[in-house]
Amino acid sequence: MSHYARADTHVDRFGWTKAVCGERVKDRDSSNDPTCPRCALWLKQDQLGLPQWARQGLTTTKETPVTDTQKQVVLIDLSSVAFPIYKTAERDVSGPGTTTNLTVQAIHEFTSGQPYSIVCCDSPKNFRKDIDASYKANREEKEAAYYHELKQIKKRLLDEGYPVWESEGFEADDVIATATVKAVQAGFDAVLIISADKDLLQLVDDAGNIQTKSPATGNLFNEAAVWEKFSVKPGQMVDYLSLLGDTSDNIKGADGIGKVNAAKLLAKYETVDAACAATESDPAAFKPATLASLKEFCSRKDTVRRLIELRMDVPVTFDLQPRTPKSVQNFRAETHLGTEMPSAEELSEAEAESPIVAQATPSKAVDAEVVEAKDSPMSRPVTEGAPAVKGADERMRQSVPSKTVDIEPSQALAVRDPAWLLAPRTLTEADKLSLRLFDSGLFSAYGTPQAVLSTVLFGQELGIPPMTALRSIHIIENKHSMSAQLIMGLVLKSGLCKKFELVETTNEKCTYIAQRVGGKPLTFTYSFEDAVRAGYVKYEKDGTVKQSSNWYKNPRNMCMWRCVTEICRILWPDICGNLYSPEELRDARS
Length: 590
Known about the structure:
This protein is 39% helix and 12% strand. With 590 residues, the protein is an alpha/beta fold.
């Protein structure tokens, strides 16, 4: 078979070059009539002088433009966006709600300037498992925390006016395929699919009206880009993927037939059915290994196709209207919170009714709102009527009366630094603050305003301002937890720590020496073997540590932070006796 290589194609030091079809050839073929069908097509387009973006079968990363008179719908595969974000946030030990916020932000970007969009979701049940019970059986079950994040994401998106589609027994890909068909039937001129799933490339059309876009890389796939990457047309993707199989979905393809051979077979026979027919009618056309592999595959090709081919008959109603987010006026908290800060009299009455901070025994006159903590670098005198903090809201300053009470310096409660200026001082204030923060959407991953309230109070009990608490305290298995760094910070800030020094840290173990004021130094070591004995390290069937585990990815950090939390609970039980890190709770759960 003769090929065509352009004159400007690079020639390696051995004299080989690459034909436009991807084959390596020794010499450039100057023939005006190459027998390779792909080369013939490309030569003709070269002779016509077509621009790169207009060529059939050539790469283009240029998104087909949608004019002002055209309607485009954006279809989003939610798990394709959310799960990679969740795994990244999990590695970074981010605070609660990180996945929810980043996913919603990403969807905002994908739909910017697009009034029509649909978020498509997987159903817990899947009809493909009825076809083959081994379908996706090799995948680890996703964590409950991820499904909690998904629930919060869906709620946020619904609140913002996004249609969220899910149908019992179907995957998001099937919902997207059905929505694509219905969008075209409803008169939409263009469909943009946001997903990294290559199965959806079977929906791409030759007119450039249906394209996919990777949420991770932003790469666009129209017919030309599909051809350039896979050497097949979008209409051949089902057959192409059937031949290859899909290890991530536990779908077995044709043994020994990889990407190159699959593309060659489809270039010659167009379809898998035709290739299978040729194994009977013309077996000599195949190499012995390919022939044997195809014959075995052809006996189960229909089942494989049913697993890979997308359904376009999902029972969903397509009645799409431009997205209209809920008005901020509809925040449910507004019905009883009002918009004004409480007056000084109301604040005083509320304090008298349900104070969060207990009153100390009177003894010495100091400012009630700026309690001077002994030896604190933040301490400074405050005079009657002085502004609390430069630039603070005037209404807030007016709502805090300047008054003095008697209090023992040794019983000083807290320093009123700027971080605490707007912190709630009564249960009423804390309840209002929690409702407002929950309704903002920034902390909706907590699930309920009550969970936000409990976190604010939990942080306040430990001397952590509300916003810092909500960003750094996690709720796992209905328990509050915080990072090992924050637990150590509480100890260091308490004034009861004389020494906290890292002695050694490796992938195998970590050693700290710590000393409480008035106590003896303690040298403590936590090792990887300690984690193994406790059952925290999970293994594969072959005896290797699970690569998805943090004990595999970051054994040094895991040993270090486990050592920190253990030694803190031993020496300072009055500060952190019931505090656990997210890693500890996750390990205990698994």
